[in-house]
Specification:
CATH class of the largest domain: Alpha Beta
Strand order of the largest sheet: 12-13-11-10-16-17-18
CATH superfamily of the largest domain: ATPase, nucleotide binding domain
Largest sheet: 7 strands, mixed
Helix content: 40-55%
Distance between the termini: 44 Å
Number of strands: 18
CATH architecture of the largest domain: 2-Layer Sandwich
Strand content: 5-15%
Number of helices: 21
Length: 487
């Protein structure tokens, strides 16, 4: 299906008149945590593609040992996660090595399940690709290496050494190192475009291929988040992305190898995002976002001491389910006071309590992961709710930082193109024997190319830190009560 989609996309690009001979470098972004399993004959076919035929008629079922392969939505590997964590010395050790505890959707546990339940398929697999390196392989005309950034979402890579962890490989499946190949940094030129694309689509034979990576990592590259920037995606679930100098050992977050520098990327996922905001929009604001915004704007910062946590689905961070509403009298002083109230007296109080509670949750865990908030902090908001200025003003106040939005919505796609452009510039500088100065850092290079790519939309109020600094402690008290009183 993916191969046929590539056939269709390239044909449409050519039909629309694109001159692919002008492409000097390409990279790509692909869904994280999916994996594909090459057969020996499939690799042979890949190396000898016929330009007179479509890709999907050549790379057919015989090219792969598995025809229904796991992607990020597969959550059937709890047993394998437990086995792998036990084998390396426990969950904390797994987090220390790979940056994440074992997750059911991660590729390592998926591979282990295939090894256990379909041993013939595993044995006959010559190479294993992630979706990103699979797509790169097609353009390359050979099996492309997995890049370290996408590879750090597998529970197999040591995020500090940027190489496969022997302990994790042994905990996963035998002979795995040879099937994965050597990982490479995300800024690696892995070769030039294959002859199939030169002959069929008129690509320049000198067109260079930069290692492809995963979509979350590519989105970070596309948003061009610098040292003091925090990216906040406000979607169905909310996601916080940040640059980290050192890996944190937060068990429910992800530390990945940064796609554009030598540091790390922190990734936090919160399940109860826009879906919960939408529930309150329907129940409290006549199912209208303008009404929702008016109600939010009509209440003061701090909401008179009213603060609510709503985890309709079991949350990832913190790992709780349920709702808790506190008013100004609520506290941990007694069980009755800690139980809070069942409902607030007005819709505007309900809505502000919800949004402030959500944003305090995001800030608290970003701090715990190691992001250092200061006077230079900037927030880049993306996702559907980033169109709502009232919500963004709460973000700005809670985080005590200006909020920016981007003109483009295709951050992952742009990230692939930006990376290709930057890595090509670095390569050309080296080839000229350093007669010309290098392009500098990725962040500065892209910021100079796109000086007006972000727009500042909100600034924090002067009393933000005074109000929300104290509310963080109330938030933590509420979470501790919910954790202690789970059913």
């Amino acid at each position: 299906m993916w191969i046929k989609a590539l056939d269709m996309v390239l044909d449409r690009i050519v039909v629309q008149g694109a001159d692919l001979s002008t492409v000097v470098a390409l990279s790509g972004s692909a869904q994280q945590h999916g994996s594909l399993y090459w057969s020996r004959s499939g690799i042979e076919t890949l190396r000898n593609l016929d330009a007179d035929k479509f890709l999907h008629t050549q790379l057919d079922d015989s090219a792969f040992t598995m025809h229904r392969t796991p992607i990020w939505m597969d959550c059937t590997t709890a047993k394998q996660c437990e086995e792998m964590e036990t084998a390396v010395g426990g969950r904390e050790k797994m987090v220390e090595i790979t940056g994440s505890r074992c997750y059911e959707r991660f590729t390592g546990p998926q591979i282990r399940k295939i090894f256990q339940q379909r041993p013939d398929c595993y044995r006959n697999t010559e190479r294993i690709s992630l979706v990103s390196s699979f797509l790169a392989s097609i353009f390359l005309g050979d099996v492309a290496p997995i890049d370290c950034s996408d590879g750090s979402g597998m529970n197999l890579l040591d995020v500090r050494t940027r190489n496969w962890s022997d302990e994790c490989l042994a905990a996963c499946a035998p002979g795995l190192s040879a099937k994965l190949g050597q990982p490479v940094p995300a800024d690696t030129i892995i070769g030039t475009v294959g002859s199939f694309f030169v002959q069929r689509y008129n690509f320049n034979p000198a067109c260079r291929i930069v290692a492809f990576t995963g979509d979350n990592l590519s989105a970070l590259a596309g948003m061009n988040v610098g040292q003091d920037w925090l990216a906040l995606s406000l979607g169905t679930s909310d996601t916080v992305m940040m640059k980290l100098d050192t890996p944190s050992n937060l068990q429910e977050g992800h530390v990945l190898v940064h796609p554009t520098d030598n540091g790390f990327m922190g990734l936090l996922c919160f399940r109860n995002g826009s879906l919960v905001r939408d529930i309150f929009k329907r129940s409290e604001a006549n199912d209208n976002w303008e009404n929702f915004s008016e109600l939010l704007d009509s209440t003061p910062r701090g909401n008179f001491g009213n603060l609510a946590l709503h985890f309709i689905s079991k949350e990832i961070l913190p790992p709780v389910k349920g709702s808790l509403r506190w008013n100004k009298n609520s506290s941990l002083a007694s069980v009755e006071l800690a139980k809070g109230v069942l409902k607030y007296s007005s819709s505007q109080t309900e809505i502000r309590a919800l949004v402030e509670g959500q944003m305090l949750t995001r800030k608290a865990y970003a701090s715990e992961m190691g992001f250092s908030f200061g006077e230079n902090t900037k927030i880049l908001a993306t996702g559907g709710a980033s169109a709502n200025r009232s919500i963004l003003q709460v973000v700005s106040d809670v985080f005590n930082a200006p909020v920016y939005i981007q003109k483009t919505t295709e951050a992952a796609l742009c990230g692939a193109a930006y990376r290709a452009r930057y890595v090509l510039s670095v390569a050309r500088s080296k080839e000229q024997c350093d007669r010309t100065p290098g392009p500098g850092s990725y962040y500065d290079f892209i910021a100079e190319l796109l000086p007006h790519s972000v727009t500042r939309v909100c600034d924090p109020s002067k009393d933000s830190e005074e109000i929300y600094g104290a509310m963080v402690e109330r938030y933590r008290a509420m979470v501790s009560f919910m954790l202690e009183n789970q059913e």
